[in-house]
Write a structure and sequence with these properties.
Helix 3 runs antiparallel to helix 5, helix 4 packs across helix 10 and helix 15 packs across helix 16. The protein is elongated. The chain has an eight-stranded mixed β-sheet with strand order 8-7-6-9-10-13-12-11. A five-stranded mixed β-sheet has the order 1-2-3-4-5. The relative contact order is 0.08. The chain has two domains: about 240 residues, no CATH class; about 280 residues. About 30% of the residues lie in helices and about 25% in strands.
Length: about 550
């Protein structure tokens, strides 16, 4: 029988769909989700083999040996062609034309049609091509390809799911995709993927695996987001493997998920600012340049009994004073970067404008009284991120009397009803939600006085959606989210503990950033008889921007 020398794009897909109905049912799930846009209640489970089936390995070996005419040459060198041929046959958009047959391999496509047994591949799921590459020591002098053993990938997937506070289905972030072994194991819990890989052959094999066993990872569902990108994860520069015309130039432009269940969940952002070269109350203050700076701390739950707290960076930028309270660009950029990594809950903390009162009232005569917490700033930071949760928080410290007897060094006060009565804010815009007390004395000469750090938020100034988020995250004591946030703030204080006689949490973990001892204060000094202040931090920020960019 004489076979056609060419085959149509996607000629294998109909066979794959029939086999998938028999063994997995994932292509039907992909179709249903594409049409309805609804998340599936359950994901069809696939049990991937640990070592692959010998019969399948033999079949693939026969396919590779059939490519060269007469079976001469090393079969492993034809793995790239065989991969392209399968992707073309399965209708993957990355390979729209039938691959050119290697030199000396005329009619290789016809011979592959005769040798290929697709049913074996589907009935015995495994990363066969990754196995073949590893067996032939692919890239071990350059790309360093060492595939993760399947059982290890399975354990990692289970651990990631068990330690997550989110609910499946998840979105997967895989910065080093390889041939997709970890993503395959995660496909039992996730239906969208953002995967990066700089080696194009590994990306093709991963895509082939996804076409065979997890179509929602191979062909992302638009309503859920995600992409497969050939590029450098560290620089954020790459090209979409599925849509070659789509380029990623920076980390902030990288593909983001549209699920609410990413495995990274919380972030804290601390901000402050300091005016440059100006007297605070002079008339042209708004025309001056201000330095806005902050610190980013991320808090991730790693298990039921552990969280990881780490400072990932500090930032600083010079902006017109008139913009820092309406459009703080550097803060928006940093939030966008974290959002791209899956963070959706942001504690947005600044020092309370008035240190002698828990009341924070916006005055028409003082447009800066709310500092970074105005409705316009919150809307600006959330623009284009409909699922982000931003919690505006003021913190301050004040003295308190310790009427307890004993050796308690620190504790938190969950019931703030009495303490809230201290607030002089008659408009009820200020709501205290947490007070933390330490046994450390404020003044060694007056040891009965101790310090309390107070956390408060604002109500009745934001729109309905923002107010609802604030209530659920900070004020509703019956909300699991509120309880988690209070717990995380408390643990953050302990993460920066102080040691005297006993370990106690640090009362003000933000002291190096904001307040009388903060970097803004110590970087600013008077240098003229008009009390004009020079901002050394703003000067150094300008130097850094000139050398390295913002």
């Amino acid at each position: 029988m004489v076979l056609k020398s060419t085959v149509e794009h996607g000629w294998l897909l109909s066979k794959l769909l029939k086999l998938d109905d028999e063994y997995q049912g994932r292509w039907e799930q992909w179709r249903w989700t594409m049409e309805t846009g609804e998340l599936p209640k359950e994901i069809p489970q696939t049990e991937f083999l640990d070592l692959g089936h010998p019969q399948v390995l033999q079949m693939l070996s026969s396919c590779l040996q059939s490519i060269p005419k007469g079976g001469c040459g090393s079969p492993s060198r034809f793995i790239p062609y065989f991969t392209d041929w399968l992707l073309y046959g399965l209708g993957h958009p990355s390979i729209a034309k039938l691959p050119h047959e290697p030199e000396g391999c005329n009619s290789a496509s016809n011979r592959l049609i005769q040798e290929l047994e697709l049913k074996l591949l589907i009935s015995c799921p495994f990363d066969y091509f990754g196995h073949l590459l590893a067996a032939n020591r692919y890239g071990q002098s350059t790309a360093k390809f060492y595939p993760t053993p399947t059982w290890t990938a399975r354990t990692m997937a289970i651990a990631a799911v068990d330690s997550s506070a989110a609910i499946a289905p998840f979105h997967i972030y895989e910065p080093a995709l390889g041939t997709g072994r970890l993503a395959l194991e995660m496909s039992n819990y996730a239906i969208s993927l953002t995967g990066w890989e700089w080696d194009s052959l590994l990306m093709k094999i991963a895509s082939l695996n996804f076409m065979l066993y997890a179509p929602y990872l191979a062909l992302p569902i638009p309503s859920l987001g995600g992409d497969l990108v050939i590029g450098d994860t560290l620089t954020g520069k790459g090209i979409s493997f599925i849509r070659p015309n789509l380029k990623y130039e920076t980390p902030a432009s990288a593909p983001k998920p549209k699920l609410n269940n990413s495995l990274l969940i919380n972030g804290i952002k601390l901000v402050s600012s300091w005016l440059s070269d100006a007297v605070w109350d002079e008339k042209d203050k708004t025309a001056r340049i201000s330095n806005i700076y902050g610190e980013i701390i991320v808090i991730n739950k790693v298990s039921d009994t552990a969280v990881k707290i780490e400072t990932i960076k500090t930032f600083a930028d010079n902006q017109p004073h008139s913009k820092i309270y309406t459009q703080p660009e550097i803060i928006k950029d940093e939030i966008s970067k974290l959002y791209q990594q899956g963070y959706q809950h942001f504690l947005y903390i600044a020092k309370a404008p008035y240190s002698r009162s828990l009341g924070i009232t916006k005055l028409e005569s003082d447009p800066d009284s709310l500092f970074f917490m105005s409705q316009s700033v919150v809307q600006y930071l959330k623009h284009g991120k409909p699922d982000i949760k931003l919690y505006p928080i003021f913190m301050d410290t004040y003295p308190a009397l310790n009427f307890t007897r004993g050796t308690v060094d620190s504790f938190y006060i969950p019931d703030t009803e009495e303490l809230e009565k201290l607030s002089k804010d008659k408009s009820q815009q200020t709501r205290v939600f947490l007070n933390l007390f330490t046994g450390r004395s404020v003044d060694e000469q007056r040891t009965i006085f101790n310090s309390v750090v107070c956390y408060s938020t604002l109500l009745n100034i934001y729109d309905v959606a923002d107010t609802r988020d604030i209530m659920a995250g900070l004020l509703d004591k019956n909300s699991p989210l509120q309880q988690a946030i209070v717990q995380y703030i408390t643990l953050f204080h302990f993460s920066r503990y102080e040691v005297n006689r006993n370990i106690a949490f640090k009362l003000n973990p933000y002291s190096k950033l904001i307040g009388d001892e903060g970097i803004g204060t110590i970087s600013t000094y008077t240098y003229s008889n008009r009390n004009v202040k020079f901002n050394n931090l703003a000067f150094l920020t300008s130097i850094r921007s000139a050398l390295y960019g913002r």
